[in-house]
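Case study B.
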Amino acid sequence: MISENNLEMILAYNEEFVTERTFEQYQYSRYPAKRMVIVTCMDARLSEMLPKAMNLQGGDAKIIKNAGGIVTQPFGNIMRSILVALYELGADEVFVIGHHECGMTGLDPELVMSHMRDRGISENTLTTLLNSGMDLKRWLTGFDSVWDSVANSVRIVRNHPLKPANVRVHGLIIDPQTGKLDVVVDGYEQQEVSESPAG
Ligand SMILES: [Zn+2]
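Model:
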């Protein structure tokens, strides 16, 4: 199999992009026009589908992505990005958006570690990490239910001691096939996070 040189191809394309001034149609303010910050999954299917399904144009929203679209740590890197968007970049509404068929659903740490071994990570390295006090297995564990995951992330953001009181936090799930959005938490209703309809 011939391995294509992605970097080379990107740089060749980019030269044309810049010299032909294609960039002019993609210039926006750094302050999101719809004053929104979105936390969602890095799933490649969502790159276009999510903004289209929400009628978002370039420049409308700050979008923070990770595997699963999850906020797990009140003082982790995703929450810091949310706070920067809220305090420094003019966002005043938060959307946590999970999706069906997510790679983080049922992610099994044992399987991930076996893939690491296959790719040349030594048993010694894994053992050292497993014994280091960091919870490697938990760190590599996904979630069982995207509904519960979204609800949990919303709870972390909503209850954060540094979140401005007037900031609404919504939780949604998108179907990557159809773009349909389901509401897990409506941030305009100041009620408790609802339970999954599936139970
Ligand atoms: Zn995903």
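The chain has a mean pLDDT of 94. The remaining cases will be described in the next quarterly update.
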